Amino acid sequence: MGKTLSIIYNALLAIIFPFFFVTLFILNLNKNKKSEGYIYKFFPAAFKPLKKTAFQEGVWIHAVSLGEMRAAVNFIDLLRSEYGKKIYLSATTKTGFDFADNLYRSNDDVLTFYFPYDFLFSVRGILKLIKPSLFISVETEIWPNLFNILNKKNIPISLINARISEKSYKNYIRFRFFFGYIFKKIDAVLCISDIYCERFASLGVKKENMRRTGNMKFDMDASIIAGDINEKTQILEKFIERKTNNSEPAKIIAAGSTHKGEEEVIADSVIKLNKLNDKNKIFLFVAPRHPERFDEVYKLLNNYLPEIELYKLSSIYSSKDNNSCGLSENKVIVVLVDIIGQLLTVYGICGAAFVGGSIVSAGGHNLLEPLVFGKPVIFGRYVQNFSEAAEEIIKNSAGRQAGSPLELYAALADYLFNDKSADSAGKNGLNLIARNKGVSLKNLEYLNLKGYF
């Protein structure tokens, strides 16, 4: 059955290949970010650094994008220090690749490259260049050809920080006739929570190959994952100082990973707050989740003039907006975060953070990042992707869930203008992070017990 399904799968891939390749080629001509690295994803041998790695055994770790890559940093560093393993580190997105490349570029024992597409020639191409003794996927990536070939080569397949959203789970169940035999090839699944263990079990993973170890995102170290955060923080602090016209401290809100339909809600709440405030200058940093929306969000925020002063983070960093002054009284300073990878810097200076993808039904984004900096976090009702973290945050009073614009306004008002409330939430968040650290080490120890290192 598995062989027949594999033939059908590859026949379908052969049909779509020319259309897929041409589409990516056109996107690349138009400098669309979705096409970044597409040649290397089709033909891994075109990536020159990979050619130097032939016959070197190591561990292949795959982290799709920036969030997964940040979550993997502690695990990767432990693997290098404890076991001295060569790491082949792949990413799908440009943001994930750039982060890993910048972090590990000077390390000879970590090689970063783009994850290949699941065409047979692409998967075979990468496995001719690297010789992994183990494949590890951070969170959940299911690729039939890759898993089939790894299985035939007796290379163990493991998932760490594993989770399956309810939507993805329903799709896997619907097509279980196809994916069932793929899930059976997975040798180890280390899940964030018990519910994910149950889902993987129902999809075909053997129960003895699963463990609930927790969320590796609790292990994030801001000083490592935030890059040049100190330098950027100093620039922003000088900018804020120039825009603050009195001795009262500025009140800073960070709206991170926002989706369409969320920027208006947060802006309306902040402007409403500002109308009742006559002491503190309010700053709102808005970081859209998707870079292709930067221009769209900038135009949207322009509609709030003259109640706001609008800037771009890129201009502030380049000093274009660093010296302007003479601001009108009682205006919100709004900064569009139009540079990828700067959200953590903004979380570091804010008084309260809102995490997007949660007012609209996008499943939410990483709720733990603001907590790493000791900042209270606010989020909407749609946090399916981070439901366990959301429950812990609410339970430990490290943040609030806002089910309506009114509740969002109330939470912002409390955290910005009630120092006791904000300080208490910040400390609770730091304690929550501290209590849950160590997941990366648990995952490493389990894989070692399985005899993979």
Give a short synopsis of this structure.
With 453 residues, the protein is α/β, with parallel strands linked by helices. It has helices spanning 2-29, 38-42, 48-51, 66-83, 94-104, 120-129, 144-152, 166-174, 176-183, 194-202, 222-225, 229-243, 263-275, 294-302, 313-317, 343-349, 369-372, 387-395, 405-417, 419-435, 439-449, and strands spanning 57-62, 87-91, 110-114, 131-138, 157-162, 188-191, 210-212, 251-258, 282-288, 308-312, 332-336, 352-355, 377-379, 399-401.
In total, the number of domains comes to 2
What is the averaged pLDDT score? Answer: 92
Please, what is the CATH homologous superfamily of the largest domain?
Glycogen Phosphorylase B
Total helices: the number is: 21
Number of strands: 14
CATH topology type of the largest domain? Rossmann fold
Shape label: globular
Judging by the overall fold, what is the CATH architecture of the largest domain? 3-Layer(aba) Sandwich
Helix amount: 40-55%
Q: Strand percentage, roughly? A: 15-25%
Low confidence ranges? none
Judged by helices, strands and strand pairing, the structural class is alpha/beta
CATH class of the largest domain reads Alpha Beta
As laid out across the biggest beta sheet, the strand order is 3-2-1-4-5-6-7
Roughly how many Å apart are the termini? 33 Å
What can be said about the biggest beta sheet? 7 strands, parallel
Radius of gyration: 23 Å
SSE blueprint:
Blueprint: H1 2-29, H2 38-42, H3 48-51, E1 57-62, H4 66-83, E2 87-91, H5 94-104, E3 110-114, H6 120-129, E4 131-138, H7 144-152, E5 157-162, H8 166-174, H9 176-183, E6 188-191, H10 194-202, E7 210-212, H11 222-225, H12 229-243, E8 251-258, H13 263-275, E9 282-288, H14 294-302, E10 308-312, H15 313-317, E11 332-336, H16 343-349, E12 352-355, H17 369-372, E13 377-379, H18 387-395, E14 399-401, H19 405-417, H20 419-435, H21 439-449
Parallel strand pairs: 1-2, 1-4, 2-3, 4-5, 5-6, 6-7, 8-9, 8-12, 9-11, 10-11, 12-13, 13-14
